[in-house]
Amino acid sequence: MSFFLWREKKLSKKESISLKRSMTTRHIMMMALGGAIGAGLFKGSSVAVDMAGPAVLIAYLIGGMILLFIMQGLADMTIKNKQARTFHDLIEPAIGSYPAYFLDWIYWKMWVLNIAAEAIVSAMFLQYWFPQYPIWALALIISIAVTIVNLLSVKIFAETEYWLAFLKISVIIIFIMAGLFLMFVTTSNHQAVGLSNLTRHGGFFPNGIDGLVIAMLVVIYSYGGTELIGVTLGETKNPEKVIPKATRGTLTRIVAFYLLPFFIIVSLIPWNQVNNATESPFVTVFDLLGIPYAADIMNGVILLALVSSMNSGLYASSRVIYTQAIDGSIAKIFSKLSIKKVPTYAILLCTSSLYIGVLISIIAGENTFNYLMGSLGYTVLFIWLIIASAHFKSCMQQNSIEKRKFPITTLIAIISLLLILAGVIITTKIIITFITLIIYLAITAVYIIKRK
Predict the structure, then answer these.
(1) pLDDT digit string (tens) for 137-176?
(2) Enclosing domain of residue 119
(3) HEC states along the chain?
(4) How many domains does the chain have?
(5) What is the CATH number of the domain that holds 410?
């Protein structure tokens, strides 16, 4: 720590509070994909299928449409506010300081819990090769590696994340092609099943509408991370042009990379067997191809994909802390940058959640992921609601009636999210709802105290 402090003292005051605009469209697009395609897809896929059966496809389609409307609103607000550095600067002018403050902190909470959850899941995949080591020890090794990458320059971080996300997406494309082949072509060790598994085991809605509603919490959690684009404003070249472009390109890819893989999974594997398997559905499908070491290769790729998502999460959470320090909401030390223009202390603060997750995993083991995922689903719901509400209000505040356009898609998103929230509250375990409520009340209490 003293080494970083020594380096920071060499910087001028002006330099210490200026992030470097090093990221381009390809970096932003891949970061959004990297943040969204992680544990929610590779590990959460089993949980979602177990809840809804083949109807999980409907859940992800609904979630994808809502995501589309939310991201359109976010891009629109970015164009209108060219000086924005992060979510806070987009939300506060539209709906006030409390929603902006609340969003900042639940967003930070979401990412620090998410990277802790994904550290545990990564350790579970790493344990495939090293079964003799406990999950907590493997999670600790991964956490240290991710911390080091984030302490390097923003450009190195962005390039690392770009290629990790590129690898992840390439494998998903191969998975889709291989899955379609296995669905309709019989091989020496596999009988083509076509679409029969979609209706064979209790129908398309085996758990009814309730199962679909319960799965929505996992779906929203899985898509969470795409809004990471809103945190990169301060380090993006020409954000008013880059963000809308990256948003359009990212949305279609995310929906495709979720809907198609889930279509493959529930078509090839009976839905009631997916969550009972000892390995990821992705590993199972590659195993069916009969390729030597296919399971090892896929396991390794998924591991890198999860590290990629952790990378994005640590970036996002540290930048929220950085902007809070710049605004004077927390200690100024977290606004200090290293000579590489990286908020060192903010990163180190956020990495503490990784090591807390390691400690929790000593007690809870692999169940840690399931405990964290429920609360994260609630958080993404509220983040999307606040972004949508801010966009709706900003559209209605246009001075010129001619320029004012009624944001019908944003209104649809708000109504849909409120309905999903009501359904989730009714169907989710009370302990998850209670813990989430306590966290939100604590954030609100701190805001009220600071205001007084």
Answers:
(1) 888 888 888 888 777 766 666 677 777 777 777 878 888 8
(2) 2-451
(3) CHHHHHHHHCCCHHHHCCCCCCECHHHHHHHHHHHHCCHHHHCHHHHHHHHHHHHHHHHHHHHHHHHHHHHHHHHHHHHHCCCCCCHHHHHHHHHCHHHHHHHHHHHHHHHHHHHHHHHHHHHHHHCCCCCCCCHHHHHHHHHHHHHHHHHCCHHHHHHHHHHHHHHHHHHHHHHHHHHHHHHHCCECCECCCCCHHHCCCCCCCCCHHHHHHHHHHHHHHHHCCHHHHHHCHHHECCHHHHHHHHHHHHHHHHHHHHHHHHHHHHHHCCHHHHCCCCCCHHHHHHHHCCCCCHHHHHHHHHHHHHHHHHHHHHHHHHHHHHHHHHCCCCCHHHHCCCCCCCCHHHHHHHHHHHHHHHHHHHHHHHHHHHHHHHHHHHHHHHHHHHHHHHHHHHHHCCCCCCCCCCCHHHHHHHHHHHHHHHHHHHHCCHHHHHHHHHHHHHHHHHHHHHHC
(4) 1
(5) 1.20.1740.10
